[in-house]
Amino acid sequence: MRTLSYEFPADRPAARRSHVGVVGSGDLEVLMTPANGNARVRVRTSVDGFDTVWRTVLERFFARHRVAASFELNDFGATPGVVTLRLRQAIEEGRA
Amino acid sequence: MTVTEWESLLDRTSFIELDARERAKALLDEGTADELCGPFDRIESPWLEPQGVVPQADDGVVVVKGLLDGRRVVVIGIEQAFQGGGIGEVSGAKIAAALSLAARDSRAGTPTAAVLLLETGGVRLQEANLGLATVAEVCAAVLELRALQPVVGVIAGALGCFGGVSIAAGLCTTLIMTAESRLGLDGPEVIESEAGIAEFDASDHPLIWSIDGGTQRVRTGLADALVLDDVTALRSAVAGAVRQGVPAEHRSRRIGELRARLEAVDPAHPPAPSELAAVWGRPAQSEGDQG
């Protein structure tokens, strides 16, 4: 298991918190809590050795979606596509 | 399949395909669901991370209070996708506490029934003894509440209900299953690994369902209702069970009947699963799902 922390510039505050997904095989859970300033991401993942892939996937996501919030990701082996979909779902549910 | 059967199939909303939170909310009256101890309370298991296992913010148990056909209920759902629905210290304590609070409310003049959505392999091995202890607390809490208000167990599938939690299922006022679901003390793979493939072949699905499956469990009277995998059908079955209230005698109290059943089976020459209902003197029931 690995715990990773990232921070990305953001300027669009989330309206409300949201929770999506489950810590099940090939899936992940996302807890999004609105916060001022940057997008702060804490990842706990069951799979070791993918730090660079996580950085790339998250960098790309937060370059397009500059949502100011704290993101807690509890991952159980989700692929980059699933990670991106769950993050999209979290920010959509966090809209006003 | 006729045209009408196809149409009714397409009209169905599968309960099995919902996650635990969606299942709990699907049972409750629109707009009445109120989740207790949810993911943002972050009461996760303290034992998983030190063992290299990623925790879940709600520890895999969803507790939602609300109304079901206007009656107060608390729905407690186990999320089967997280750790195979395994019960740990926190998730077990959440179930036991929710049941005890319903009992407290019922005694204080606010009758609150409970609905248990059971999809679990039993105790979570990473939390061994603590998990076992909380399953005992869950059983005690079921006994406490069922004297006051119905405790309705639902095993919808796809995982089924095994291990210590199957004892809690056996204590429920009413137990509702689907044909897809399973109920057993030891799961098929546990039996196979402990006693060998000649005893139980865990890859033989027809064999497993002929013994553990919902159809057989209802036919032999170890569960009460076989319901279609459909939100509306399950909701009406659960509402009906809540409406029935507390029975004069619970199944688990009928010791004489249960002992006679054990005596009727010779382990050296066990009956075929299809013969079991007759061996236990239960009248043949009509096939097919209710609702």
UniProtKB/TrEMBL annotation, chain A:
<keyword id="KW-0963">Cytoplasm</keyword>
<dbReference type="InterPro" id="IPR023439">
    <property type="entry name" value="Mal_deCO2ase/Cit_lyase_ACP"/>
</dbReference>
<dbReference type="Pfam" id="PF06857">
    <property type="entry name" value="ACP"/>
</dbReference>
<protein>
    <recommendedName>
        <fullName>Malonate decarboxylase acyl carrier protein</fullName>
    </recommendedName>
</protein>
<dbReference type="InterPro" id="IPR009662">
    <property type="entry name" value="Malonate_deCO2ase_dsu"/>
</dbReference>
<keyword id="KW-0597">Phosphoprotein</keyword>
<dbReference type="GO" id="GO:0005737">
    <property type="term" value="C:cytoplasm"/>
</dbReference>
<feature type="modified residue" description="O-(phosphoribosyl dephospho-coenzyme A)serine">
    <location>
        <position position="25"/>
    </location>
</feature>
Automatic annotation (TrEMBL), chain B:
<dbReference type="InterPro" id="IPR011762">
    <property type="entry name" value="COA_CT_N"/>
</dbReference>
<feature type="region of interest" description="Disordered">
    <location>
        <begin position="267"/>
        <end position="291"/>
    </location>
</feature>
<dbReference type="GO" id="GO:0016740">
    <property type="term" value="F:transferase activity"/>
</dbReference>
<dbReference type="InterPro" id="IPR029045">
    <property type="entry name" value="ClpP/crotonase-like_dom_sf"/>
</dbReference>
<dbReference type="GO" id="GO:0003989">
    <property type="term" value="F:acetyl-CoA carboxylase activity"/>
</dbReference>
<dbReference type="InterPro" id="IPR017556">
    <property type="entry name" value="Malonate_beta"/>
</dbReference>
<dbReference type="GO" id="GO:0006633">
    <property type="term" value="P:fatty acid biosynthetic process"/>
</dbReference>
<dbReference type="GO" id="GO:0016831">
    <property type="term" value="F:carboxy-lyase activity"/>
</dbReference>
<protein>
    <submittedName>
        <fullName>Malonate decarboxylase beta subunit</fullName>
    </submittedName>
</protein>
<dbReference type="InterPro" id="IPR034733">
    <property type="entry name" value="AcCoA_carboxyl_beta"/>
</dbReference>
<feature type="domain" description="CoA carboxyltransferase N-terminal">
    <location>
        <begin position="1"/>
        <end position="277"/>
    </location>
</feature>
<dbReference type="GO" id="GO:0005975">
    <property type="term" value="P:carbohydrate metabolic process"/>
</dbReference>
<dbReference type="GO" id="GO:2001295">
    <property type="term" value="P:malonyl-CoA biosynthetic process"/>
</dbReference>
<keyword id="KW-0808">Transferase</keyword>
<dbReference type="Pfam" id="PF01039">
    <property type="entry name" value="Carboxyl_trans"/>
</dbReference>
